[in-house]
Known about the structure:
The chain is mainly alpha-helical. The protein has 2 domains: 2-76, Orthogonal Bundle (DNA polymerase, domain 1); 95-264, hpI Integrase, Chain A (Orthogonal Bundle), CATH 1.10.443. Helix content is 60%, strand content 4%. It has helices at 2-11, 16-32, 38-51, 54-70, 95-107, 111-123, 127-130, 135-140, 159-171, 190-203, 213-227, 231-238, 243-246, 254-264; strands spanning 142-146, 152-156. It has a two-stranded antiparallel sheet with strand order 1-2. Helix 1 runs antiparallel to helix 2, helix 5 (95-107) packs antiparallel against helix 6 (111-123) and helix 6 packs across helix 11 (213-227). The longest helix is centred in the first third of the chain and has 17 residues, at 16-32. It is globular and about 60 Å long. The mean pLDDT is 90.
Amino acid sequence: MILSYEKHLKQSNFAKNTISAYLFSIKQFYHLFDEINKSNLKEYKLYLIDHFKPQTVNLRLRAINCYLEFIKKEKWKLTFVKIQQKPFLENVISEADYEYFKKRLKSDNNLYWYFVIRFMAATGARVSELIQLKGEHIQTGFLDLYSKGGKLRRIYIPKKLQQECLIWLKQQNRQHGFIFLNKYGERITTRGISSQLKVLAKKYKIDPKLVYPHSFRHRFAKSFLERFSDIAFLADLMGHESIETTRIYLRRTSTEQQAIVNKIIDW
């Protein structure tokens, strides 16, 4: 049954990471329980709540619900746990730190990593999407991705970034194929990008907590709304299924909140 479910997920165009996470959840369930029924499902939810953070709980429940749809047991679907959102964004690289990071990488002629952070911060691409970029996408100016259910998401490459990257690729005689490769000439992994960003953060004395792939995606959203306040358009660019997910970017970071408080409160 699990093999059939895996085949179903692949045919439904689920992302590779999503498939892996969903299969893990189903295997975890069957490791704990012999069969799937209402009682065991409720026990599994309680087990998750006791052992994991709300975000992880909901990810596992989403996987279970998808599986229940697959086996035609939709009526058994579980409700998600409520996640208490903080009134501010955490660990988002500031525009000043981002500009400094870019400048240092470029001055050191470390153009590979310069373009890694540029593409994430200028397109809003997830790191899993970043590593799918090819020279052909740079030439056309966009990358089309199909999510679950065959929904299209287009990642636009800004003109200035496109022109700059084309020059870099031409210098390396690499106009075709994947852009971001490892030292073995294979496509770099998301983990490889994450670990190297931490190394570079320490080298340039930037807080490592602020330097991770999703931080640059956050930076894209924050900078976009500061310049063009169309949250519906941003939701499309980010690939969010619900505009409510995008609303978090209307909030300020805790650092920004502190600065405003310090500036305006004089009583």
